[in-house]
Design brief:
Blueprint: H1 6-26, H2 30-47, H3 50-58, H4 62-69, H5 84-92, H6 103-117, H7 120-129, H8 132-135
């Protein structure tokens, strides 16, 4: 089904691709995939320096960008999330209203999607800005989730 506007049709197509890739890991449930994508992106955004978070946002599909910037408070310093456990808890707190998911697997799934669809240069900048324990959750290209 076409919306009649190329920009909307394109973002729907790309967003559906991203959600499909998340579903390959977490199971066939678009609702869960959408919530996971938003929760992980917002946790990542809140952990990044503001300028880097904005640069990452420019590489997201228009529809996904809306979820990424939901509840964004640019005047605040990056969240003090240093460990894998803290990051997973931050994501988990944003996943209300869906079936239980393996949060670590969900994070790795979204990180893998970003790794496939965002420029390698941008991914490298994002990864370098993360504490080692969070960066370690980022799967290498082709690595199983």
């Amino acid at each position: 089904m076409s919306t009649g506007l190329d920009v909307f049709d394109r973002t729907l197509q790309i967003t559906n691709t991203w959600l499909g890739e998340i579903e390959e890991t977490l199971g066939p449930d678009r609702h869960v995939a959408w919530h996971v994508l938003g929760a992980v992106l917002r946790a990542l955004r809140d952990r990044l320096p503001i300028e880097l978070a904005a640069h990452l946002g420019t590489q997201l599909p228009l529809l996904v960008r809306g979820a990424y910037y939901e509840h964004f408070r640019p005047g605040h310093a990056p969240a003090k999330i240093y460990t894998e456990e803290e990051f997973l808890t931050y994501v988990s707190n944003d996943l209300g209203g869906i079936r239980p998911v393996n949060v670590r697997k969900a994070v790795r799934s979204v990180f893998a999607v970003l790794g496939r669809h965002v420029t390698p240069e941008q991914i490298e900048k994002v990864q370098r800005s993360l504490p080692e324990h969070i960066r370690a959750m980022w799967p290498a290209p082709g690595e199983p989730i």
